[in-house]
Request: fold
Amino acid sequence: MDFEKKLSRLEEIVQKMEGGDLSLEDSLKLFEEGIKNSRECNEQLTKAEEKVKLLLKVDASGKAITEDYKE
Reply:
């Protein structure tokens, strides 16, 4: 599942759990799924951050001068 779908699913899970109409068993299943999706999204974001390059300036020939993103 891609990032956007995982994030959308997380939003669905939160809405269902906030509704308060779920059994304890269903709540726990959704909670576990939410934690799994949350971790996977966080991992994907971390990997994306590592790939981001910062644009520093453009040289005289119009070529972008970049450096890797670092926290």
